[in-house]
Amino acid sequence: MNGRYDVNKPIKSQFEPVLPTQTKAALRMVLAGASDRTELASGPLAHIVTFTDELFRSDGTMRDVYPVLAVVASPAAAVEVEAAIKALARLATIPAPPILRIDRDVDGVAALIQTVLESGLGRISNYARTMATELVMLRRERETLFENFRVLEDAFRARNWEPASEIFAHDVFVDPKDEGIGRLMTDGWVEQLLPVSSFGVSGFALHFRNLTKGGGEVVVTLDYVENGEGVAEWVVPFSDLAADWNFFSLPKACDGSPRTLRLRISANGSEPPAPSLGHPIASRRYAARARSPHGDLDHRPLAIKIYSGIPGVRPTALPNSIAPSSLISGRRIEDYRLPLEALRAVADVSVSPIVPDFQTIRFLEHEDAIVCHPLPAGISAGAVANVVAPGTVRFSARAVIDHAEGKPALVGFLLAPSAANLRSEIAILEREGTARRSAYFSGWRDVAAGEPVSINIMLDSPTQRTMNLVILSRAKGDSVDFSWLKVFDFRMVRHFDVEPRGEALHAQ
């Protein structure tokens, strides 16, 4: 084979079968008894009939035939056909053909059978046989392709070419005055453009300055600047990060046209590990930046190493690498906080037999937080209407009991359809312990005084419609004294498909 094919021609013309296709004369679809050979051998079915004494080879295997119908013209032939069908059943390869008796007008009925089989089933059978032959050729081509890939890998190893090699690095520059980088991750995000083309990028490494004992997760996303299309997302618990270089791998090296990659880091939790910064650089384009101004950013990049490999090929040389939590290829990522106008409009939808003499649900103006005080019985709930946009895949917030003597409580979140009766949804949750199938429940989390916890809802698939956010709390023990449960830092992550005109719009 010379490996050159004309893509405008059908597959059959590109792969000439090495096995001859069966001709019309050899396409035998009718089974008959040997006793009827005289009646059928010279009639219309002569070229498509197989007799019972010809059905099997001497070694017991069936010949290259496929009987779809059995015809019987005499009692002796009926016995022979039934015996042959029983033998076919033992092979368990083809279904037993139905038996048609043609005692009278043998030639007339045989002519009708010939017309039906050759006009419909004959053409389909010929087509299926041709496709099977070409499938054999495609399988051989596939085996050859995989063999060529193996030879290519051997050639790379023979020349000591690594499947993933470091192509860029910003070394760690420790400045004792660096402070507050971790806080920037919880308040918003820290991001940076990668100073290399996306073509062939297979992974990267980030350096973290310290470990943390608190609970939470670091969220790392990688996307293209030109159209906002996401590449991958990593959600890593604090405990899985080392105070050293941490390697993040892609499922395959970036391919397609060269584009600009943007790395963004955020965190959910009280005290996330802070990423290290590199030496100051002259170009602010490739320096780190954050949602909030910070004196150490805008002239220093993140400490980072970038690895490259063969475009479209899975990297294999990144040690102890962290695999993506989700692939978001072809989607745009939007990480946003709930607007204050929506939080101010929080509504009390509590389901409880107790009517307290104080306000259990309210918005704290100067802290951008919602108070949801639990009651001794039932569920206290505050609803923020229609704030969960379609395409949302993750919701997170933090909760704390904001009183030193506050009794512990339970907190949770419910995402419910915009048209749902929220009190009914909460009543079902209290009674059955689970939400309806149309809603999403985060589960209950323990909250103690002065110990903030992070609550996350990670959905298997993006939401298809606008939904309400409901903040839930309930008593953990017998007392709810001073259980001023404060919920804050509401964040949403939304994925949505990239518009076809996205690149053109950014290019203008």
Automatic annotation (TrEMBL):
Pfam families: DUF6212. It comes from the Bacteria. This is Membrane-anchored protein. The lineage of its organism: Bacteria, Pseudomonadati, Pseudomonadota, Alphaproteobacteria, Hyphomicrobiales.
